């Protein structure tokens, strides 16, 4: 068995580039089988470097010509070592001309230049540019690009690249050309080209400074009826960046292009964002409320990168969170501001907390745990993670919590003032925040350097005589790979105190009244006590309000206290949190009962708490929905001492069906009360009503009750949200109509790839779907493992979203996983490596189950021809 990891790259080894590139002229003669790439680089020796040779990176390239200052180089003039080329003893000023040949149609990795549905697209982040030509392919090399595209005019009428179109025209043999110039310096990972048969929705838009810019959304012809929401979201993003941060669009033209084969969500290439169709295409017939929200968030995210990522970029890939954490934070704030109401904001915040717990906390507790700013990697594509993105966003949010909104804005302004058109580090960002506010943020650095989820333990003491309330906070952080011991973090803990009537008590510290009923305590030591005076009654503490830090809060709440918070907390996140704690303690008890063959009971107290929130008309439907959602099976597994997936599933199903049975009448009433007749709108109020209504439907289905309601909704629905929810309830409720409905649904949407993805995903995650069923679905004519969305919809939905079946005691799920990881790895290592992570948490299962999981991992690991991507994941899992 091979256990070696291929070359590890360390952050501490960073060296500045030996040469800087001033200008890049690229020529592409596009042909699916044989594309000729010509590159002309003007380079100068970097005074900041001691190295004397030019270093270029290249993937699988056929090198046709290489000239230095006009002289053809021979094999004796340079050395190639794997993917690195060295040209020694180069002069200070260099013009390098390179010609390579590549075959885009053979590129199944979707990294570099590739063909999707007959059209050309690129994906260059992180290191895809080197798959087209030899180049100093690292983000701290920023250059000005001119790009000439040549292609068959009939097949590829649209030729796009970054920046501005400066020239276009005809060529012999039915070909044409377009020349593009990007006025801004950029790293190679932001390069993009598109050569395709596409159409666009376009619009002229006036910026705050009065300039008019051209906005375009490019899609395949049949999808032109699905571009409105992306366009609207783009305009909202531009406006919001102007208003909230004073950041303007710096180009005359901004394009979004949708592609059906894409490894990730979308890419922020300068002026030419390339998107997974999933985050562009929507109309009420095919897209759900969640899809609409995703489009708004991702369009915003990629647009916001224009400043946080493109104008100011990363020095090296260890700094990835500098742009990703910050940009996720910005898109989160954008989505919240678009809703506008306090309660709407709270629901978006709750969704963020759910994602973090569902995906990031497990990552941080598993074999791939890494700091927000990693210290090393084998394959950088494995580090586009929930830790870098979502925990990174939490870290940015904590600056705002500590410095206040104004202080944070000052820090942002200083960051841009200092670093525009530079490639910088997370330390530079922190320094801007500290300097703009005259604050010492030295300890805050540990959020970047230390991995793991900190645990904050709270203990409280009320003194009825002195009328004081003490909160003692202590922090610890579990060991993570390579980091056995952790130093204390700088943790903002927002707290409030609730009186017996559920009101917020005024806060007094050291004899001074705090201006607000929420106060941010700054925990910087291992253990600290905070004291409030003048507390006239024994309060219920509301701790970690608004989820003020990405930590686990350990406090011995009683059920009565939780119900008090669930009914009254003015902080909506903690109100929701109280409900989650009530549910989780019961789910853990029920799981244990299933495992031990005990009887299952759900107490009336819990049911009544659920009923109360369901019927509370003073709360938005959207909030009631999240308050009624039970913690997922993954979350219960994370909280279990030993994971028993089948017991967890049964316990949660029991609880869902109990809610369905006991609240039946109220659920039906809420279904009727939350209808949204009339024209579909994806706004938060309407979406909230649909969400609550469809959750009620799901609870009834869990109890196998009133399936006629789902059936009727499926037949009558005029939007995808209602249609797909009804279908889900029919399938999960094992209705006799489920098969018919699945068939009808398939036929109705056969031509809509994104809807067919839903059709596969629903079946893959249905409780009855076992490996045999998944294999059967793989034989379906619509299944195609090469398309990442389709692979995710079936394979990932099963391996990650159906634990009770995937973790079947006979090991059939793991055998399937082994096969699929290996099959995918031959085509697309990035996607394969994501699937490989489905076994990350194998050490938390029962011993026999662990053995089965480990042997599956070993089987993958023993395969000789693994990509670096998968090799790194399985090696770390087994370490
Ligand atoms: N920078 C892109 C984003 O907006 C992600 C692209 C990453 N792609 C990749 N293959 N690693 O988040
Ligand atoms: Zn991003």
TrEMBL record:
Keywords linked to the UniProt accession: Aminopeptidase, Hydrolase, Metal-binding, Metalloprotease, Protease, Zinc
NAD recorded as keyword: no
Top-level taxon: Bacteria
EC class name: hydrolase
Peptidase M1 membrane alanine aminopeptidase domain residues: 229-447
CDD domains the UniProt entry points to: M1_APN
Domain Peptidase M1 alanyl aminopeptidase C-terminal: 559-879
Cofactors required: Zn(2+)
Coiled-coil ranges (or none): none
GO process terms (BP): proteolysis
Entry EC number(s): 3.4.11.2
One matching Pfam family: Peptidase_M1_N
Catalytic activity of the protein: Release of an N-terminal amino acid, Xaa-|-Yaa- from a peptide, amide or arylamide. Xaa is preferably Ala, but may be most amino acids including Pro (slow action). When a terminal hydrophobic residue is followed by a prolyl residue, the two may be released as an intact Xaa-Pro dipeptide
Record-annotated Aminopeptidase N-like N-terminal domain positions: 87-190
A GO MF term: zinc ion binding
Entry-linked SUPFAM superfamilies: Leukotriene A4 hydrolase N-terminal domain, Metalloproteases ('zincins'), catalytic domain
Peptidase M1 alanyl aminopeptidase Ig-like fold domain sequence ranges: 452-555
Keyword Nucleus: no
Family of the protein in this entry: Belongs to the peptidase M1 family.
Function recorded in the entry: Aminopeptidase N is involved in the degradation of intracellular peptides generated by protein breakdown during normal growth as well as in response to nutrient starvation.
Protein name: Aminopeptidase N
Organism from which the protein derives: Zemynaea arenosa
Gene: pepN
